[in-house]
Amino acid sequence: MLKKLINWYQKKLVNTAHLMKKEHLNIKNHIVKINGDKFYLAKAMVTDIPEMVDIERDVYDGKAPWTDEAFLPELKPRLDRFYLLLRQEDELVAFIGSSLNDKQGDCHISNVAVKPEYQERGLGYFLIAKIIKKARQLNYKTVSLEVRISNVKAQRLYSDLGFKQVGVKKDYYDGDHEDAVDMVLDLSLYETIPNNFGI
Question: Which of 61, 114, 130, 192 gives 20 to 30 Å between its CA and that of 136?
Answer without folding.
Answer: 114
